[in-house]
Amino acid sequence: MDTGSDTEERELVARAAGGDRAAVADVVRLLQDPIYRLALRMVWRPADAEDATQEILLRVVGNLASFRGEAKLTTWAYRIGVNYLLNLKRRTPQEAQQLSLDEFGEGLRDGLADEDYRGPEAALLTHETRLNCSQAMLQCLSRDERVAYVLSDVFEVSSEEAAWIVDASPAAYRKRVERAKRRLGNFLRSTCGLANPDAFCRCSRRVEKAVELGRVDPRRPAFATHPVTPGGRGVAEAEQQMIRLHDAAAVLVAHPDYAAPQAKMEAIVGLLRSGRFPLLE
User: Fold this and answer.
1) Full DSSP string of 236-250
2) pTM to 2 decimal places
3) I want to staple 101 with a disulfide (CB 3.0 to 4.6 A). Which of 35, 51, 142, 187 is the partner?
4) Residue 278 burial by CB count (10 A; 0-12/13-18/19+): exposed, middle or buried?
């Protein structure tokens, strides 16, 4: 259904908050992919992003009665999602190690091959290495810097909206974004051959080491074969965007338009329709 206008969104939410199970399902389907992509950028691994998305969507549905239309529904849901993700007890490996970008860069030097990988599925695994690496480097930022960068440069949310999402003043939010951009830009220009041809690292020369360390699974690539939103960018389109832009930010932005796993989302809808969720009792 078309939920493009503010009025339609408010009407949809009102029906959902009133217990209309079809409307609740529509809300979940409207939000599932944006929330999943937010979670994926924050927690790195798809399995963890699935779990976080489920928890966030349940919180969103549980709070629909408090929606007042002060922001777009997706923006309002981002605020709930960001609050959950910033306070998540589970830590990514980089967070657990308190890994800095400098330390991450030194790790990239270790095992860098002299020549490009030309083994089975070379193009696919090179894509997977790039996508996995750019996800991992985000985890070296503090959570507040990471979410500020993702909202600003990946999702292109305005600074006013993003400040509201993270519950900060616009000035404080912009400082976080500037700090994150500066740190990531310096790192990419000194390390990543995609951002700077003179830098030492090449995705195609990291493939074998990434496979050896278990960061890339040749049998089940986590990102390069990930389902995308219908009509959204795939890996090839994202790669072309990165080539056209050819700057440090493009390396991090140029990901496919990942879709939330349909089976998990249908399970959420099934739970909400089961009568066991308080909103719909």
Assistant:
1) HHHHHHHHHH-SHHH
2) 0.92
3) 187
4) exposed
